[in-house]
Amino acid sequence: MKYYAIIVAGGSGARMQSAVPKQFLLLNGLPVLMYTIQAFRQSSVMPDIVLVLPASYHNYWQQLCTDHGFNIPHLLVAGGETRFHSVKNGLDQIPDNNSLIAVHDAVRPLTSQHIIETSYHHAEKHGNAVTAVKSRDSVRQLINHTSVSLLRDQVYLVQTPQTFKASLLRKAYEQPYNAKFTDDASVVEQYGIEIHLTEGDHQNIKITFPEDIAIAELLLNLKPLA
Ligand SMILES: Nc1ccn([C@@H]2O[C@H](COP(=O)(O)OP(=O)(O)OP(=O)(O)O)[C@@H](O)[C@H]2O)c(=O)n1
Ligand SMILES: C[C@](O)(CO)[C@H](O)COP(=O)(O)O
């Protein structure tokens, strides 16, 4: 079995409001994206890495790699209009159908080797594996303007990596784009497949807002990735 990781970094990071997209911001002196790629490379699975980046930032990234002596091999692919289109561009570069493909947000640099390895192993067994954590807060849902409490043990917050048999992911991504496709699980579920959840970690945060940079640095300093 061959293993791939599509690292999606094709976004502009509008909510971060930084001068460069958040995937390039520094955590303790190293760009976010380098932590993310390192985490996959250091896992026992050692997947081939496909990095999806806005075409306008390819030169910028290559310069960053030179500046930081970053030499983990990866294939560079142009990003798309939405995350869905970026994943599709990455998928187009993986002809091998007898493989497992993990899709991971570039801006989740605190993912662990354990999460990554669990994701590939469960996808091998079940066809798909979607990383998620149980809600630690009480949860309410608005129904007709009235909030109703939900059983929080039944509410999961979805993270990445999300890993799939390549043939399944490819078929699912042939569907027309739908605005409700916020992740890969929603695309594969729409294709008619039951989603299998695997345990993530509350520290596997997605860097979205300015304060997330300080939180990520704090977490990195508290606990090196394992
Ligand atoms: N056209 C896009 C949009 C998003 N992503 C990637 O999908 C991941 C999760 O998306 P999000 O956190 O929303 O990133 P942005 O779209 O960059 O942020 P924002 O919504 O604030 O603009 C990120 O790694 C982002 O780079 C992508 O590859 N291509
Ligand atoms: C894929 C994801 O990170 C899972 O939590 C999330 O859906 C991305 O959402 P965003 O709106 O692109 O931040």
Describe the structure.
The strands form three sheets. A seven-stranded mixed sheet has the order 5-4-1-6-10-7-11, sandwiched between helices. A two-stranded antiparallel ribbon has the order 2-3. Strands 8-9 form a two-stranded antiparallel ribbon. It has one domain (2-222): Spore Coat Polysaccharide Biosynthesis Protein SpsA, Chain A (Alpha-Beta Complex). The protein has helices at 32-42, 58-68, 83-91, 113-126, 166-172, 184-190, 211-222; strands spanning 2-8, 26-27, 30-31, 48-53, 75-78, 99-105, 128-134, 139-143, 146-150, 156-165, 197-199. The model has no long low-confidence stretch (mean pLDDT 97). Helices cover 31% and strands 26% of the residues. The chain is of the alpha/beta class. The protein binds cytidine-5'-triphosphate (CTP) and ligand LQXTBERG. The site of the ligand C[C@](O)(CO)[C@H](O)COP(=O)(O)O has 9 residues, from strand 10. The ligand C[C@](O)(CO)[C@H](O)COP(=O)(O)O is lined by residues 83, 105, 158-160, 182-183, 206, 208. Belongs to the IspD/TarI cytidylyltransferase family. IspD subfamily. It comes from Mucilaginibacter pocheonensis.
